[in-house]
């Protein structure tokens, strides 16, 4: 790593934080003092976030978080970039650090079996294991694991409906879940156990840990992994990927998408051209004009 590169740290932990509202101000203040940028979510069920800064700054914020005994074993994953992936620092209060919409699902009480990146290939190669990508459709579209099923959800709240319609605890005895950093599949595993599924596994550290730890020659990952910052996607070794975002709809787009006659910079891409009315086009042209004038960056919506 070039010592001048920016460190991007993704972190989360399900833990009871009954005083989470009181943690917001001191955490935001400390991050701002360290010149850290990114977003951290606080809720009664835990903490979730992605932040970026120098090596020293990131270490300081992680140390600050871990100084709380409840977060002493907080794990994080790192990648690197040459350009700042965030513009501001935000610490937000939420009902859930990842929104499933079912309050009684509590990963602090019960979760599935963690599987390390090194053991993941063996698990998902087992024909008796149902492999499910818990991410949303636009994320899955640019990369996923071999044999993985795409629930085609638009938001995580739709995952329970997908399970109820497509999986049966009496039929699907072994289920393996994965997501970007581990947080969605951890909560999904808690939900599935509550629905009567017996053997639910999930990838510890998520896709990001897998891409970091498993050599490309041994990998069962195909494509790139969508991330919620201005890098848009990462590859094996957590190197920055090749995708950009459509300014019109926020969908990740490839070079092939940009070569399509349906792609118009700042206006549309093959993923949104079908819903582009004359009125929407006019609004989008004005937004693009303002963007070009003000050089405002585009950040993916989580």
Report on this structure.
- This protein has 302 residues and is α/β, with parallel strands linked by helices.
- The protein contains nine helices and 15 strands.
- A five-stranded mixed β-sheet has the order 4-1-3-2-5, with helices on one face. The chain has a four-stranded parallel β-sheet with strand order 6-10-9-7.
- It is globular.
- The C terminus is likely disordered.
- Keywords: Oxidoreductase, tRNA processing.
- It comes from Okeanomitos corallinicola TIOX110.
- Belongs to the TrhO family.
- Catalyzes oxygen-dependent 5-hydroxyuridine (ho5U) modification at position 34 in tRNAs.
- It catalyses: uridine(34) in tRNA + AH2 + O2 = 5-hydroxyuridine(34) in tRNA + A + H2O.
In brief, what are we looking at here?
The protein is α/β, with parallel strands linked by helices. The protein has helices at residues 20-33, 55-66, 117-124, 137-140, 159-166, 183-194, 206-213, 255-258, 278-294; strands at residues 6-14, 37-43, 46-53, 76-81, 89-93, 113-115, 129-133, 143-145, 174-178, 199-203, 221-223, 225-226, 233-234, 244-245, 252-253.
**Order of strands, widest sheet:** 4-1-3-2-5
Which term fits the overall shape? globular
Give the averaged pLDDT, no decimals: 93
Beta percentage is: 15-25%
Largest sheet: 5 strands, mixed
Count of individual helical segments: 9
Instruction: Please give the alpha-carbon distance between the first and last residues.
Output: 28 Å
Q: Rounded to an integer, what's the Rg over CA atoms?
A: 20 Å
Q: Can you write the helix and strand succession as a string?
A: EHEEHEEEHEHEHEHEHEEEEEHH
Q: Portion of residues in helices?
A: 25-40%
Q: How many distinct beta strands?
A: 15
Kindly name the structural category: alpha/beta
Instruction: Detail the poorly predicted runs.
Output: 297-302
